[in-house]
Design brief:
Number of strands: 0
Helix content: 55-70%
Radius of gyration: 25 Å
Distance between the termini: 59 Å
Number of helices: 22
Order of helices and strands: HHHHHHHHHHHHHHHHHHHHHH
Largest sheet: none
Strand content: under 5%
Structural class: mainly alpha
Length: 415
């Protein structure tokens, strides 16, 4: 401990704060983790307060005792400390350019570097963040609400680059948490709009889209396109055009087609990972669906499914609907029961609906739609609401159950 610099002691203090507050948040015995009780018989509460502010304490043994209370040990490992900054810079660059192969390689190197010290104060926190990056980018797994609180308390523990990465993990996981509006507060609490990281600029774009900040969106689209064309950041440009498709397909068909041409040119000129291609074709298909160009929806969703090796997109939903609207036979991929269980519940039900459509009576399909699909529909999901209103209308032409349509419209109406 005598060889540890004041700066590193300061970071250990921040780690103590983050882990103590995490225990305070999740423990059934919260009082045990209050500052007053936590430092009892070790140091004064004022000493703990200063340590948790990142100020180096005079008595190194206090760090050892406080770490033990949290289930950690303390070590000083200059060799590992020297490996972390260059790997961090490489990871940050890979995230900026969405280089999945590099992200996989570097997170593995960081994990290998930290695995023997993951039970030690501070190093264990960094190991946890590295694994979260790995899960987010490679497995599409997001932070739980408890972990979001924990990661926020880790801010300033490591470096500016890691702070940006933590903000991304926290905000994006909250944004995708459909049972929470937490992302709205986090956008301002984490000051996402002022971030210099390209991956967080994309988070700003997502927020403006969700909140319908159209004037801010237009300005940001222009700014990011210019910046990323200059940097030749192809993956982020594709992300940008994906988001533009979502926005402009509601407003301007001409601009939508311009974006499509830009995307096609990029696909021809650059090697794009299959999963990113799946995202591109999915966005194009969804955009065409909004303007009811069903033949283009079918083309794009078929390409989406071909490239969607991990089944992260629900292209079959829009594919089946477009086929039905054109009076074609419904031809969608065969998913095993296990694969269907991997889908979100609403998409699993929709898969069953289209698999059975035409093989059971109109009344049975209508009952399935109302009993199994309707309860899972979010009124904000305008495409799905509109699609299944049209499906129900077609069924009612055969069943004459006109009151059913009124019930559907009432239950899918935005509050």
């Amino acid at each position: 401990m005598d060889r540890i610099t004041k700066e590193k002691l300061g970071r250990y203090g921040l780690s103590i704060r983050a882990n103590r507050k995490h225990q305070l948040h999740i423990s059934n015995n919260a009082y045990r983790w209050t500052q007053k009780e936590f430092c009892k018989d070790i140091c004064s509460q004022n000493a703990l307060i200063n340590m948790e502010k990142g100020l180096a304490g005079r008595f190194h043994d206090n760090y050892i005792l406080l770490a033990e209370k949290l289930g950690f040990k303390i070590t000083h490992n200059p060799e590992i400390d020297q490996q972390i900054p260059p790997l961090t810079k490489r990871l940050y660059h890979a995230l900026e350019f969405y280089d999945l192969d590099e992200i996989k390689s570097i997170t593995q190197q960081l994990s290998d570097c930290l695995t023997n010290v993951k039970d030690y104060l501070w190093y264990g926190d960094l190991y946890r963040v590295v694994k979260a990056v790995e899960k987010h980018y490679l497995n599409k797994e997001n932070l739980s609400r408890d972990d979001r609180h924990f990661f926020i308390d880790m801010l300033e523990e490591f470096s500016d680059e890691w702070d940006e990465i933590i903000k991304l993990l926290v905000f994006y996981s909250a944004f995708l948490d459909f049972d929470s509006e937490e992302y709205r507060d986090l956008f301002y609490d984490l000051n996402i709009a002022s971030s210099k990281a390209d991956f967080n600029k994309l988070c700003t774009l997502l927020y403006y889209l969700a909140e319908d900040y159209n004037s801010k969106l237009y300005a940001l689209f222009q700014e990011l396109e210019s910046e990323w064309v200059e940097k030749k950041n192809i993956m982020r440009l594709i992300d940008l055009y994906n988001q533009e498709l979502i926005h402009k397909s509601y407003f301007d068909v001409y601009e939508l087609r311009q974006i499509e041409e830009k995307i096609k040119k990029m696909i021809q000129e650059y090697s794009i990972p299959k999963q990113k291609l799946a995202e591109v074709y999915f966005s194009l298909g969804a955009a065409y669906l909004k303007i009811k160009e069903y033949s283009k929806v079918i083309e794009m969703m078929q390409r989406c499914i071909e490239n969607d090796l991990k089944m992260k997109k629900h292209g079959f939903v829009y594919l089946a609907y477009a086929q039905h609207m054109l009076g074609q036979n419904i031809v969608i991929p065969y998913y095993t029961e296990e694969e269907q269980n991997m889908l979100l519940p609403i998409y699993a039900k929709i898969y069953t609906y289209y698999s059975k459509l035409g093989h059971i009576s109109a009344e049975q399909s209508e009952n399935f739609l109302m009993d199994e699909i309707l309860p899972l529909i979010y009124p904000d999901d305008e495409l799905i609401v509109e699609m299944f209103q049209e499906e129900l209308t077609i069924l009612i032409e055969q069943t004459n159950h006109y009151k059913t349509l009124k019930i559907y419209i009432k239950k899918t109406k935005k509050v």
